[in-house]
UniProtKB/TrEMBL annotation:
<dbReference type="Pfam" id="PF10009">
    <property type="entry name" value="DUF2252"/>
</dbReference>
<protein>
    <submittedName>
        <fullName>Uncharacterized protein</fullName>
    </submittedName>
</protein>
<dbReference type="InterPro" id="IPR018721">
    <property type="entry name" value="DUF2252"/>
</dbReference>
Length: 140
């Protein structure tokens, strides 16, 4: 989603994305500014449960969970493209993914490279955060 579609408000970006990626989105999803800082707001259902990481006690259980989470992620991306709002995303994300994933090994390679690149960026972000904190730079 281009920054121009949510006026560079991180909370609005998350709220709009959550609505786009969910078939029956929470009607209380929204966003606000508090003291000039953008926030995403929503009500957490008392029936909503978190994933218990201790349940992933074997490679098989982890693989099963990864399969389900991958299917949910693919569904969310397929819902949030031109089918949801062609003014924001004017193309079919699922067709783009199908075209990019010409083979299982190719997809695995792409995902692996993305994960390593993302991990490297997280390390850089963390180093920047620590340096700013140690220098006494205001973080917010």
């Amino acid at each position: 989603m281009p920054a121009s579609s949510y006026d560079n408000h991180a909370g609005e970006r998350v709220a709009r994305t959550a609505k786009a990626q969910t078939l029956d989105a929470d009607v209380l999803i929204g966003y606000a500014n508090v003291a000039g800082v953008p926030f995403y707001v929503h009500e957490k259902s008392p029936f909503q449960e978190d994933l218990d990481p201790t349940a992933l006690s074997s490679a098989g259980k982890l693989a099963t969970a990864a399969t389900y989470l991958g299917q949910a992620l693919a569904s969310a991306h397929a819902l949030s493209d031109q089918d949801y709002d062609p003014a924001v995303v004017g193309y079919s994300i699922d067709k783009q993914i199908d075209a990019a994933a010409s083979s299982k090994s190719g997809l695995t390679s792409e995902l692996r490279q993305f994960a390593f690149d993302y991990a490297a960026q997280v390390q850089l972000d963390w180093q920047g955060f620590v340096a700013a904190y140690q220098a006494g730079t205001p973080l917010y």
